[in-house]
Amino acid sequence: MCPWGRAALDLCGLRDVAVRAKAASCWGPFMAACAVAVRAPAAVARKPVAVRLQHPARPFQRPFLLVRRSVYAQRQAASFLPTGIFALKLLISAFAGAAITTGLWPDNWRPIAPGALAPERPETAIDRDGWAGRVYRRMPRAARGLEEDENDSGIDRALPSNYPRRVKTVTFTAPAPLPGLPTAANELTGRRLRYLIGSSTSGPARDGEIIEVSYDTSEPAKRGISIAYCNLFDEKNTGRYGPYLKTSDTAAQYNEGQIDPRGPGWEKNLREQYERRKRQGFAYVELDNPDAYSVKDVIGAIELAASYGLKVIAKNPLLVEHGAASYVAHPNVFGVIVERGAGAPDDMDALRRRAGKPDLPVWFVAFGSGRKWAGNVASTAKHYRNMSVTYSSAGEYGNSIDILPPA
Questions:
Q1: What's the DSSP call for residue 257?
Q2: pTM surpassing 0.70?
Q3: What CATH number is given to the structural domain containing 266?
Q4: How many domains, the chain?
Q5: Which has the least CB within 10 A, 72, 84, 118, 295?
Q6: 100 in a domain, yes or no?
Q7: Does some domain include residue 399?
Q8: Is residue 222 part of a domain?
Q9: Do residues 324 and 266 touch, judged by C-beta distance below 8 A?
Q10: What tens digit of pLDDT does each residue of 215-239 get?
């Protein structure tokens, strides 16, 4: 034993402990220090040696072993603590994930009913044309997967591709022109009219003028703009456009056939005239004797002319009952011719304004004994724009004399 170890034992009065420690001198200074640590409390209390000898000291090796075991147990417990905390966190995370998944999982699933996947027999569908085809019903929603249901949410698959569908049609109607709104440019505005429907020739045509030729004239004038005369009556009274009516005094006076608009001859007469005038190179036509028919029949004739690319000049619109404004307001009407007794300038200006065409050209024409009437009309018409008056001294519209040129 080293000297400093023996001195320590002497100071503590533990000689008998030193005798036992000699046998374990192989542990060296470390074992001596441990003995001092164990027996130090007794030395400090300064109890009599006799009292200490009544209780034999325990073997020197046991306290050291107990200390090492307790330290080892603490270290082992300390090493298990992080592992336990990690396992607890992992368990809590698993429970939290299961709770969130349960909350977000759709609850509209249902078990597949027996026989839901059984194939169904096709049915037969008949389309609008009488064709038959097979139609397969849709599989029940419960029998399909979640992915297909999600795809169906944005796409309608209620009907198969070969199922006959109803076709919806949309009809667009051009709105009628409103009063006060500007209309499209009219090339007839401000031009003089030479109304020559009673002449076999177009006369001395001039640039910038309008010439209306007779029913039998086969070509437009060489100069200016030409209008072809057309008749809603059977001009030659051929009997080819029946059935006929007997309600017009004008038809009886001129020995013309009043065609029944409900019969097949009405459209036949119009189409033959339109085809002939279009072939001859005319762009404008006048439809005479509209006052013998309803405004519906007259407008139908105007629209038929439009289908041939022909523009229409209205005739005596104030004599057409219950629809003069509709007659003049039609988009395919580009001018108005007014005969003696068929309207005054004031009335015609009010009519064209109601029709939404305040600048529509109006031409007053007269012949024979209508010279005075023409003068009276001119004195009033001079206060309006695009109104003019002419008079024929060579019978019924055999020539054209200006009484009032258009302003």
A1: B
A2: no
A3: 3.20.20.70
A4: 2
A5: 118
A6: no
A7: yes
A8: yes
A9: no
A10: 999 999 999 999 999 999 999 999 9
Task: Give me the amino acid identity at 354.
Answer: R
Do 366 and 217 share a structural domain?
A: yes
Both tokens of residue 305? 């002319």
160 belongs to a structural domain: no
The single-letter code of the amino acid at 75 is R
Q: For residue 76, what pLDDT is reported?
A: 65
> How far is it between the farthest Cα atoms of the chain?
178
Q: In this predicted model, what pLDDT tens digit does every residue of 305-344 receive, in sequence order?
A: 999 999 999 999 999 989 999 999 999 999 999 999 999 9
**Strand spans (E) along 200-323:** 209-213, 225-231, 244-245, 258-259, 284-288, 311-315
Q: How far apart are CA 380 and CA 346, in angstroms?
A: 8
Q: Give me the helix-helix angle, 61-104 and 29-45, nearest 10°.
A: 100
The sign of the CA dihedral 380, 182, 226, 264 is negative
Q: Would you give the DSSP letter of residue 166? A: P
Q: Which tokens in the block code for residue 282?
A: 């005319």
CA–CA–CA angle 144, 149, 151 (5° rounding): 125
pLDDT of 60 strictly over 50: no
- List the domain range (segments joined by +) for residue 255: 192-404
Phi then psi for residue 30, to 5 deg, are -60, -40
Is residue 21 over pLDDT 80? no
* Band (193; pLDDT cuts 50, 70, 90): very high
Q: Number of helices (H) and strands (E), helices first, in the chain?
A: 12, 13
Distance between start and end Cα atoms, the chain: 151
| Peptide bond connecting 243 to the previous residue in cis, omega within 30 degrees of 0 | yes
- Examine the fold and report which residue of 35, 57, 79 is the final residue of a domain before the chain moves on: 57
